Amino acid sequence: MRNICSKLALPAKALGALLAVFLTVGTAPNLTNAQVLYGSLVGNVADQNGAAVVGATVTITDKNTGLSRETATRADGDYAITNILPGTYEVKVTKQGFSTYSKTELTITANSVTREDVALKIGNVTDLVSVTADATTLQTETATVKSELSGKEINALPLARFRNYQSLLNLVPGTTPALFQNANTDTPARALTTNVNGTARNNNNTRLDGAQNVFIWLPHHSVYVAPAETIQEVNISTNNFDAEQGLAGGAAVNVVTKSGTNEFHGSGFAYHDNHKFRAKNYFHANSLGRNIPKYLDTIAGATFGGPIKKDKLFFFGGYEGTFERITRQGTFTVPTAEQRAGNFSSFANTTLFDPLTGAIDGVGRTRFANNIIPTNRLHPISLKLQALIPLPNLPGVTNNYFNSAPQIFDRHNYDGKVNWNRTAKHQIWGKFSHMQAAVTGSFSLGAAGGACLCECGNGTGDTKVYVATLGQTWTVSSNFIIDGVFGFTRMNHVTTGPDYGKNMVRRCWASPAPMARMNARAVSRNSISRTTPDWGTRTIGLQPSAQIRASPATSTPPRSRRSTRFASASTWCATS
Fold it and tell me: 255 φ, ψ to 5°?
């Protein structure tokens, strides 16, 4: 199998242009708008009489990383701190002549604006007025219609198969029930699809830590589905969202993954589903084996994160493995031994005619005696083809063949993230995710092919996905902010069919004599040719001798190969 590899190489001028785009300065009239990856904190500071307090210092401190940022109230008492990394913060407001105000539990979420109005009391700065929590208020800073799923909710609520967080999109108003889509073989991420507010499903747009997360060939898929244990929060905007969340007509979904903190934290998890705890399948044929088909489903993994350098550098990593061994079964209709020999005498209400007799419109045709086709009239190619079809193993002439085979699904997800608080005003982070999956499904009729004994997708599919993201936010001053995200995604996929390496042309059409009659009666063109991007050109030529010859590309059924990579970048800079 040919290896597929690539690298991202940029000349000096192109690299300079990329950096220029990454740090392009633009203007925006209002800095309080929340960013896709970040949150904002706004509010007003007044005294007990409602008069604005000018020059009060507002300080926020991330309780997990120790990062602190501060600003001062303006002439009207208002303040704003933007581009805040999601997390739990402590807010302090100080001003000479007033008691210090402190709120110890303030949650900042991505793509949201949080308001915290403060009423200072006259007193000494050393006096402390502490607030731990207050009632949830209505969102009044933006008109965006959105829902939020926290990491706690994602881990506590029941999730569908594969522990996909997207199953919780069912809780969002305006969504249709989320469903799996396409074959396991070539979409092992098992992304879910939903329609939002009546729009097409491919009008939704998902970002993973700010980077586009889209399956190029199937845009209604996410190319990488982050494991539930690695997610910090999911923000789903369904209406009136800002232009910066573009590329979405239905829902703009922003997934933020976890980061390391000043303390080491980890988790280990395992989920197992076993057929021994399941009820009997009513339609399973008891005479063919066990009553309960094999069903083994295991999801296991771990996460770990902590400080590399306290208050400065942090890491977080996670692994999740999904392993399935599921027996899939089905009942099919195959020809009986009598039918294969041309004996249809048991079909009293059916009459078989000799197709080589009578006029072209069917008048004057001769019946086969007793509905039995003479053996010398059975075409050798047909006999070879029907020999590939298994014999019935159940009674009757319909639904007379039962078969089962294991569906094998192995998937590995790896996630790593590093955060660097370069200064109090400049934060840089990088994220890398990788999925490797192998899925196998078998033909229901063995060498004859047939439907797959699986959840769609015959053969063995080998998929590899790589997602790399680099982002930064830099508060140059109270009215000048630069942030940007660069994302790179690559996906390789190869599917090998169950009949790969088998030459069906030579196996069934080796005899030239029967082909002469087929060539004379049914074939009007000398050759049939088609070209595909990956497999090259294949030609089947019918020569005057009536033999079929195939080019080397036809000697074995081709593999399906797909490879893509794309990069996305977004910048947002503002002055006021």
Answer: -105, 125
